[in-house]
Amino acid sequence: MRPGVWTVYRWELRKLRSLKRTYLGLGFAAVMPLIFVIAVAARHHPPRDIPFGRYALDSGLAVPLVVLTFGSYWLFPLITALVAGDIIASEDQNGTLKTILTRSVERIQLFSGKALVTATYTIAALLTMAVVALIAGGNNAGFHSLVSLSGTRVSVGHGFVLIAASLGIYLLPMLSLACIGLLLSAVMRNSAAAVVGTLMLSLVLQLVAILPGVGHIKPYLLTNQFLAWHGFLRTPTDWAPIGHAAWVCALWIVPSLIAAAVVFLRRDVAGG
Questions:
Q1: Nearest-CA neighbor of 194 among 95, 25, 81?
Q2: Residue by residue, what is the 3-state secondary structure of 243-255?
Q3: How far apart are CA 224 and CA 206, in angstroms?
């Protein structure tokens, strides 16, 4: 009897838990908000040039929102790439792919399991950051009402809801990078190359966004979608950037995932 997708998913999840880079990525996600809170508390001077930075000493609710801004530049692309770029390529480097397929596991099931584990890790990394940021920020400043981007006062309870919604939309470009990492992992067959390639693509897109004369393509750049969560922090909610990010990320996710699956399914395992 062939194992199902969820059985393969559990296999891959156990394998992921044994990898050092998994804990390295989750460690980055946990340490960065701690470093930010400690630095702000020591200086007694919050950053005022980024959204919600000025409120970092007034309410713990501001901390995860500040880290979302900082993290979009390199932190979350790196964290995502660490696993997405490795999860297929490592099988090639270790020569274990052929062995796995002898378990009567169909290739599409194996690919689906790896894709689901990559998504699970990506979600876990974002949640780790949010939980640590809230605990550290709350311990330093307590939980108090927050001022939205529109200048209106947001209650503590509503603030938690808005943070959850912001994390949800922020997850979409992270998953897009994860799918790109999967594709590079399948194509390059080298973990380091795939990880670096995913991270470099993110950095290149950020550089393109600041070039003059690219205003017509900027709304479709993947890295630009990391700012869509601002829509939830306006009164009333600005759904335009949120909806835009949803379909733009889908344009990155679907082709990348399909291409990765095609490359993996057509892989000549016997030939290496």
A1: 81
A2: HHHHHHHHHHHHH
A3: 8
Q: Which two tokens stand for residue 215?
A: 């205003």
Q: In whole angstroms, what is the distance from residue 246 CA to residue 26 CA?
A: 25
pTM, two decimals, is: 0.92
pLDDT tens digits, 69-97:
988 888 999 999 999 999 988 887 777 76
Contact 20, 124 (CB under 8 A): no
Give me the residue label for tokens 């969560």: 229
> How far is it, in rounded angstroms, from Cα 110 to Cα 23?
23
Residues 6+ away with beta carbon under 8 Å from 86? 19, 21, 185, 191, 194, 195
Q: How many CA atoms lie within 13 A of 102 on its CB side?
A: 7
Do residues 89 and 185 lie in contact, with contact meaning Cβ atoms separated by under 8 Å?
Answer: yes
Banded model confidence at residue 173, pLDDT cuts 50, 70, 90:
very high
Assigned token pair, 147:
């001022």
DSSP letter string over 96-152? -HHHHHTTS--HHHHHHHHHHHHHHHHHHHHHHHHHHHHHHHHHHH----EE-TTS-
Q: How far apart are CA 13 and CA 183, in angstroms?
A: 19
Cβ atoms of 83 and 22 within 8 Å: the answer is yes
